[in-house]
Design a protein that fits this description.
467 residues; alpha+beta; Uridine Diphospho-n-acetylenolpyruvylglucosamine Reductase, domain 2; Uridine Diphospho-n-acetylenolpyruvylglucosamine Reductase, domain 3; Vanillyl-alcohol Oxidase, Chain A, domain 3; 3 domains; 7-stranded antiparallel beta sheet; 25% helix
Length: 467
């Protein structure tokens, strides 16, 4: 619901195959070495504050190129990072001095003849996925930032605007193919370790176990229509609105996903927005019962075709900027003191940084699955908070980091103190527990089977077990 960037990958501009002198197995993939023309554009993450310098970036167009690039990277040593869309919050899809396997050119959606399932290639962005599936009356419960690629979104969990009704992306994932650390194709449908491979791909986090190439999903029928709604008040009403949202939104039916955003920019405001898979009049009555519209400066409620609703939350093409984000999951509603503190945090936020507290409903069908049934552990949570700061000028970065860390330190102790792996955060010391909970031990076991030498390594990556 927050557009982070209008960044477009420059990978398609390159056509030269680079080689390292003396190597017999130079990759067939389009590969840029550090210092070559186009390298600086290619190494950019969507988050402009990140500045990492891999030794080489290999743009792979098919699984054979991926396997060959991994074997080539292994000859040179150093870490291997995996990039599909480049949206990871801390640059885990890049590295310093290693090789990046970029799968953004491996794209496409193949729907089965009966329309019940689809194979989606790892580099496919979710905007392409949504529209290709909608053409045949199908969809998946994916997210709202449309340039995010399917592999990274799914392997971390994947939650979207129909998630409370239909669960996570991992709950629709039926099969996965990946290339392991030795360059071997592993298919969960046929591999002796297939059960572990699929389990880990369902929420263990991208980049840990191998390069995901193809994801096979069971599809949903497209809802005939959706209702999009938005209410906005001046920030002086934040305390009251957030209190009402906290008691109203998580208790609603699975047909509704709703967010409450407290922000200091572009204007100081508190907004309640979301999507409903039901009757327009019923939603309006529910909103009127929960929120006073007397002081609202905006109210809108509109029924529309599903794919138009998808586009409504896609954001807009903004200039590339820097950000720092953190997250907490909550099971029990915040109390009055924490809600008042949240409102105060945004009210006194630095004026030269965009600061947002983003509360969103969770649970519903997500909670129907046991925490250990997939690698995604946070099944009992009812909402989550994303603490967001955005800036354009490097000189204000200090203000941004100070605010977001204060916001997290203030509110996180009132939550379940768990975090979403796809919202990775290098500040977290206890990230193993916060991201993975009791599933971490099994994740280490799977890592040892697929990547015992820890070739796919990055900060907060899964460590292989030694037993």
């Amino acid at each position: 619901m927050i557009s982070r960037s209008g960044f477009v990958s420059a990978a398609g501009a390159f056509a030269t195959i680079a080689t390292i002198p003396g190597r017999a197995s130079a990759p067939r993939a389009t590969t840029l070495l550090r210092g070559s023309r186009g390298y600086d554009a290619a190494r950019r993450n969507v988050n402009a504050r990140l500045d990492l310098h891999p030794r080489a970036i290999a743009f792979c167009s098919d699984p054979d190129e991926i396997a060959q690039a991994i074997r080539w990277a292994n000859e040179g040593g150093g870490p291997i990072a995996i990039r599909s869309g480049g949206h990871d919050y801390e640059g885990f899809s890049l590295n310093n001095g290693g090789v990046v396997i970029d799968v953004s050119r491996y794209r496409g959606v193949d729907v089965s003849p009966d329309g019940t399932s689809a194979r989606i290639r790892a580099g496919t962005d979710i905007d392409t996925m949504y529209h290709r599936l909608a053409d045949v009356g199908r969809t998946l419960p994916a997210g709202t930032c449309h340039s995010v690629a399917i592999a990274g979104l799914t392997t971390g969990g994947g939650f979207g605007l129909i998630g409370r009704r239909h669960g996570l992306m991992v709950d629709r994932l039926a099969r996965v193919r990946l290339i392991d650390a030795e360059g071997r194709l592993r298919d969960s449908a046929h591999d002796p370790d297939g059960e572990d491979i699929l389990w880990a791909a369902r929420g263990g986090g991208g980049g840990n176990f191998g390069v995901v190439t193809d994801l096979f999903f069971s599809l949903l029928e497209v809802p005939p229509r959706v209702v999009i709604f938005s209410l906005e008040w001046d920030l002086t009403h934040a305390n009251e609105v957030l209190q009402r949202w906290m008691s109203w939104a998580p208790a609603q039916s699975r047909e509704l996903v709703a967010a409450c955003l407290l922000q200091n920019s572009p204007t100081k405001s508190v907004r309640v927005v979301g999507e409903y898979l039901g009757n327009e009049a019923a939603l309006e009555r529910s909103l009127e019962g929960a929120f006073s519209r007397a002081n609202a400066r905006e109210f809108s409620l509109e029924s529309m075709p599903y794919i138009d609703g998808v586009a409504r939350f896609a954001g807009y093409g903004a200039a590339r900027s820097s950000w720092k984000l953190k997250s907490s999951y909550g099971e029990k509603p915040l109390g009055a003191a924490a809600i008042a503190a949240a409102a105060a945090l945004v009210e006194r936020a630095p004026a030269d940084v965009r600061c947002v507290l983003h509360f969103e409903t969770f649970g519903g069908a997500v909670s129907d699955v046991a925490p250990a049934a997939t690698a995604f552990p946070h099944r009992k949570m009812t909402y989550w908070i994303q603490y967001c700061t955005y800036w354009s000028e490097p000189r204000v970065a200090t203000h941004a980091f100070a605010w977001v860390r204060e916001a997290f330190a203030t509110l996180d102790p009132h939550t379940a103190m768990k975090s979403y792996r796809n919202y990775c955060d290098l500040d977290l010391v206890d990230w193993r527990n916060r991201y993975h909970g009791e599933n971490y031990a099994r994740l280490r076991h799977v890592k040892a089977k697929l990547d015992p030498g820890n070739r796919f390594t990055f900060p907060q990556g899964i460590e292989p077990s030694r037993t």
